[in-house]
C-alpha cells in the first residue's frame, strides 16, 4: 500500500471525528444553544445507559465465539498494559508540569485510555479493502478484523468505565468537589431519614453508599461524658463502641473511594451479556444470524449502537466551546500528552508485542499483531469526555486535549500504521 493511500486511510476517520466535533461546537454557541448544559447532561445519560451498552454487547455477540475468545486471550492483557504504562507516564507528566489537582485524573486518563472503538472500526476495514493490503484476502481480513475490533472495543470499554472512571472520580473528590452529593442519604442517630435525594441530574450515575454519622459521633461523645460518672466497666464498653463506630466510618470511607457499584457499569454488564450470547451456542443460534428467531433483538441493539460515536463526539465538540473561552490546560501539558500517546507508548508497544510473539503468546497472524500494535498509538478515548461531563470536572480542558490530539492523530496514525505494517509483513 502506497504512503499516500495509507495517509488517506488514516486521515478519513480522524477527519470525520473533527467534522462532528465542529458540529457539536456550532450547536453549543449562544445563538444556537441546542447543545447547552442541560442538553449535554441528558445526552450523556443516554450514551451511558443505552448507546454504549448496545454497541459493546451487540458487537461482541455478533463477532466473538468460544473458539476466538480462547485464541485472542492476549488482547485483554495487551490493552491492560497500555492502560498501566499510560497511567504511569501520565502520573509523571502531572508531576513534571505541576498540573492543577482537579485535572490529574483527566491527564492520567487521557494518557492511559486510547480510542479502541470508532477509529479502529474505520481503519481496519479500510486497510483490508485495499487491493495491495498485507493482510491477505479482503473478505477474510474484514471478517477477522471485525472480530478483533469488537473485542478490543468491548475490553477497552470495561477498562475505561471501571479504571478511568474511578480515577477521574477520585481526583475530583480530592480537589474538594463533592461528587457524592448526587444521591446522598443522611440518617440521624434515631434512624430517621433526613434527606433522601437532591435534584442533581446525575442522581443514578454517581450514587454512593455512605450515610452521614457526624451527629452520631457527637452523641457518642456526650454519652461517654455521662458514663464516665458510672462504673469503669461501662466506660470500657463505651470506648469499645466508639472504636467500633470509627472502624465502620473508615470502612464506609473506603467504599466511597472505590465506589464498588460503579465497577458494574451498564457497559460492563453488556459485555458480560454479549460474551454469553456469543459463546453459548444455543443462545447464539436464537439471536444471531439471518435466520435466527430473535434476530430483531440483535438488529435493534446494532441500530442503537451506531449512535454512540456521533453522540460522544458531539458532546466533546460542545464542551470545546467552553474550552475555547477559558481552559486550564497549558501548552506544555498538551505537548506532554502528545508525546505520551504518539511517541512513548508506540515505542513501548513494539517491544511488548514483539516479545509476546517470540515467546509464543501471539501467533503469526499479521492482522492480529497489527491490531495489538496500533492499540498503543491511538488518540485518547472519546468516553473520557463523557466521564468528565458526568462529574463536571475538567470538561473544557478535556475538549481542548481532544482537539489537539485528534488533529495530530492524522499525521501520527499514518506514520505508525505504515511502520507497523512493515513490521508485521
Kindly describe this structure.
A 3-stranded mixed beta sheet has the order 2-1-3, with no helix packed on it. It is globular, with a radius of gyration of 25 Å. It contains 17 helices and 3 strands. 72% of the residues lie in helices and 2% in strands. By secondary structure, the chain is mainly alpha-helical. It starts with a helix and ends with a helix. Residues 180-223 have low confidence and may be disordered. The longest helix is centred in the middle third of the chain and has 37 residues, at 138-174. The protein has helices at residues 3-28, 37-63, 66-71, 74-97, 104-112, 118-129, 138-174, 214-227, 232-258, 266-279, 281-287, 295-305, 308-325, 331-358, 366-374, 383-391, 395-424, and strands at 185-187, 193-195, 211-212.
Portion of residues in beta strands equals under 5%
How much helicity do the residues have?
over 70%
What is the averaged pLDDT score? 75
In DSSP terms, counting alpha (H) and pi (I) runs of 4 or more, how many helices? Answer: 17
User: H/E order of the elements?
Assistant: HHHHHHHEEEHHHHHHHHHH
Global geometry: globular
Distance linking N and C termini:
12 Å
Rounded to an integer in angstroms, the radius of gyration calculated over CA atoms is 25 Å
Largest sheet: 3 strands, mixed
Low-pLDDT residue intervals, each spanning 5 or more residues: 180-223
The order of strands across the largest sheet is: 2-1-3
Judged by helices, strands and strand pairing, the structural class is mainly alpha
Number of DSSP-assigned strands: 3
Amino acid at each position: 500500500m502506497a504512503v499516500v493511500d495509507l495517509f488517506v486511510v488514516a486521515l478519513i476517520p480522524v477527519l470525520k471525528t473533527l467534522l462532528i466535533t465542529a458540529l457539536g461546537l456550532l450547536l453549543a454557541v449562544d445563538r444556537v444553544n441546542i447543545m447547552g448544559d442541560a442538553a449535554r447532561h441528558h445526552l450523556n445519560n443516554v450514551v451511558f445507559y443505552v448507546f454504549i451498552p448496545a454497541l459493546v454487547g451487540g458487537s461482541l455477540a455478533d463477532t466473538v465465539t468460544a473458539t476466538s475468545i480462547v485464541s485472542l486471550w492476549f488482547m485483554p492483557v495487551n490493552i491492560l498494559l497500555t492502560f498501566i504504562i499510560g497511567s504511569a507516564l501520565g502520573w509523571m507528566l502531572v508531576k513534571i508540569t505541576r498540573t492543577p489537582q482537579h485535572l490529574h485524573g483527566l491527564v492520567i486518563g487521557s494518557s492511559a485510555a486510547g480510542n479502541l472503538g470508532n477509529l479502529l472500526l474505520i481503519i481496519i476495514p479500510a486497510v483490508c479493502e485495499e487491493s495491495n493490503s498485507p493482510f491477505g484476502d479482503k473478505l477474510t481480513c474484514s471478517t477477522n478484523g471485525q472480530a478483533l475490533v469488537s473485542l478490543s472495543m468491548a475490553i477497552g470499554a470495561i477498562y475505561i468505565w471501571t479504571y478511568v472512571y474511578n480515577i477521574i472520580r477520585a481526583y475530583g473528590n480530592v480537589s474538594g468537589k463533592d461528587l457524592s452529593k448526587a444521591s446522598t442519604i443522611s440518617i440521624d442517630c434515631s434512624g430517621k431519614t433526613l434527606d433522601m435525594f437532591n435534584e442533581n441530574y446525575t442522581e443514578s450515575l454517581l450514587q454512593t453508599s455512605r450515610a452521614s454519622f457526624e451527629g452520631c459521633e457527637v452523641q457518642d461523645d456526650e454519652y461517654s461524658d455521662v458514663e464516665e460518672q458510672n462504673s469503669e466497666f461501662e466506660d470500657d464498653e463505651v470506648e469499645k463502641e466508639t472504636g467500633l463506630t470509627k472502624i465502620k466510618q473508615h470502612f464506609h470511607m473506603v467504599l466511597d473511594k472505590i465506589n464498588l457499584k460503579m465497577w458494574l457499569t451498564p457497559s460492563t454488564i453488556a459485555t458480560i451479556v454479549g460474551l454469553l450470547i456469543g459463546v453459548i451456542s444455543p443462545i447464539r443460534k436464537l439471536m444471531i444470524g439471518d435466520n435466527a428467531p430473535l434476530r430483531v433483538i440483535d438488529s435493534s441493539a446494532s441500530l442503537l449502537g451506531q449512535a454512540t460515536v456521533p453522540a460522544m463526539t458531539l458532546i466533546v465538540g460542545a464542551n470545546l466551546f467552553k474550552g475555547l473561552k477559558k481552559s486550564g490546560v497549558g501548552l506544555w501539558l498538551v505537548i506532554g500528552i502528545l508525546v505520551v500517546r504518539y511517541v512513548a507508548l508506540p515505542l513501548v508497544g513494539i517491544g511488548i508485542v514483539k516479545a509476546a510473539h517470540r515467546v509464543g503468546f501471539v501467533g503469526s497472524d499479521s492482522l492480529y499483531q497489527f491490531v495489538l500494535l496500533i492499540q498503543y498509538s491511538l488518540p485518547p478515548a472519546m468516553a473520557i469526555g463523557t466521564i468528565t461531563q458526568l462529574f463536571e470536572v475538567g470538561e473544557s480542558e478535556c475538549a481542548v486535549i481532544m482537539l489537539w490530539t485528534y488533529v495530530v492523530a492524522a499525521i501520527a496514525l499514518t506514520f505508525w500504521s505504515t511502520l507497523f505494517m512493515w513490521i508485521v509483513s
